[in-house]
Amino acid sequence: MLGFVIVHMAGNLMAFAGHAVFNGYARLLRELGSPALPESGLLWVARIVVASALVIHLFAHAYIMLHPTIPSRLAWSDVMPPWYATLPLSVLQASGALIALFVVYHLAQLTIGAVHPAFIAGDAYQNTMVALRFWPVSVAYIGAAAAVGIHLLPGLWTASRSLGLIRPSTAVLARWLAPVVALGVAVGLSAVPIAVLTGLLT
Description:
Elements: H1 2-13, H2 19-31, H3 41-66, H4 89-112, H5 124-132, H6 135-162, H7 171-197
Helix pairs in contact: 1-7, 4-6, 6-7
């Protein structure tokens, strides 16, 4: 899911390259795998993989909630966690819920066009600009970007620790890498709505 978020963010940032480049990127995503696969075939495979990862993520969370003794097996025996890795569980739950609600809205607006005032199929750039010109929508996108960053901050550390990637020799790097990635993703996802709000993108 982190890989998807980073790739999605990079794709969003192509809006700064202009209408033609952004729409070309959107078209490329639909045509990947052609002619071996039908149009959008590989895109649907990616969507299914990401959706499956999300379902597993939610089931894992539910399992841990039902079996609260499990985290004790992952005790911080050799490496003390940074402050952000010990944020209350409610922070992860609240940010996760906000992300889930936003994803539903985002898909309805820019993939289906159901809650878009002037949706044009195949014109991803114009659809994005029109949607973000309505300032409450831009604010919602910026808020969702902040929620992603907040969710990643403890999530990256704890996931890495659970996978055994954090040891005394890598602890310092991990301590800085998690906030850098979380902040970078939050800023990157916020860049386009901020640019539209300020008139940099039109």
